[in-house]
Amino acid sequence: MKKWIEAARLRTLPLSVAGIILAGFIAASVRQFDWIIFILSILTAVLFQILSNFANDYGDGVKGTDNADRIGPQRAIQTGAITPQQMKRAILWTGILSFLSAFILVVYSFGIEKAGLIILYLILGIGAIVAAIKYTVGKNAYGYFGLGDLFVLLFFGLVSIMGGAYLYTKQLDWTWVFPALSIGFLSMAVLNLNNMRDMASDLKSGKHTIPVKLGLEKAKKYHIILIVLPFFFTQAYIFHHYNGSIWPWLFMLPYLFLFVHLIRVIQINNPKDFDPELKKVAILTLLYSLFFGMGLIL
Length: 298
Hints:
Blueprint: H1 2-8, H2 13-29, H3 35-63, H4 76-79, H5 84-110, H6 115-134, H7 148-169, H8 177-197, H9 199-205, H10 210-214, H11 216-240, H12 252-267, H13 274-297
Helix pairs in contact: 2-3, 2-7, 2-8, 2-13, 3-5, 3-6, 5-6, 6-7, 7-8, 8-11, 8-13, 11-12, 12-13
């Protein structure tokens, strides 16, 4: 079990549920929260993330991207702990479980009579499964063309927040785009740190991530944008819904540490030093979601 737990990369799971948690808080702020929807949403997001991690391990493993030059934690196929055939079976079963979880979620949320909405969400679910796999798997893996950031913004941000909140409320609020972009950009920042750390090995393997395309210094400037813009997006949402309460500004507490993180990133010259920053931003994104969300309902 230990090798599969390591392959699931548990440290990535907090980031995967940050948007789901904030969507639940948004629903609670308009008194339309549902615990069953929340639990099923968390389960589905976690399964999608594990699927993505398995597929990433497989794709980079068989392509040789995960090699001795890689700075981050060693992967299961890279070390031989899990064979490519075993990982392919794990991807298949995790994909099936992800789809079943998503199906139960949308049927519970909308009722079987809302066939159109169920089909729409299942298409999104299938899209998430395909995106998780195609990030590194196959000849046209989009992660090798620098498109990973775009898909993170789409699924970790827009789908997670706007699609998640709609499951509760059955309506769309255009202002949800602000927290959606906030979570999306912060999630992109985690990916950017990962890619800045792995620039050397990615370049050798033909994986043209954003940092590989931009170079380290420009990638750092890109990272600053990814961290700073959500600060203003969040304020835009607060001002639009402002009711005189100071509690929504709780989000600034984790942001103090994110600004300290930016100072650290600017100073880094050794790629291996990006790895601990990656963990920090993932946890701080979850804390941002919790603090901002609690501020909305207090």
